[in-house]
Amino acid sequence: MNLDGSDGAHVFSLPRLELRSSSKGWRSLCFLADGSRREIAGGSADSLMAAKAAAVDQARDILGPACSAALPAAQTR
Asked: What are the contacts of 3-8 at 24+ separation with CB within 8 A?
């Protein structure tokens, strides 16, 4: 999900959160505005919705106040 409001399925923009399927469940990545990425700790969630909620919650600390305003809206997509 792109935090600028654009559709993450069609356009890659930064900052961005991604959920990726892995053999151990869902893996969450946070791509920062400078192009670097950080894996969001906390383990894999059992469902996509739980993984998405956990990623959004943890991304608040990583992204800071400038992007945090976009996170509640992103969580409902």
From this structure: 3/63, 3/67, 3/70, 3/71, 3/74, 4/70, 5/70, 5/73
Joined tokens for residue 51 = 């993984």
Q: Which residues contact 36 (CB under 8 A, 6 or more apart)?
A: none
pTM above 0.90, yes or no: no
Do the Cβ atoms of 37 and 30 come closer than 8 Å? Answer: yes
Number of helices (H), then strands (E), in the chain: 3, 3
pLDDT digits (tens, 9 = 90+) for 21-76: 888 788 888 999 899 999 876 656 677 888 888 888 888 888 888 777 777 665 55
Measured CA to CA, the distance from residue 69 to residue 66 in angstroms comes to: 7
DSSP reduced 3-state for 22: strand
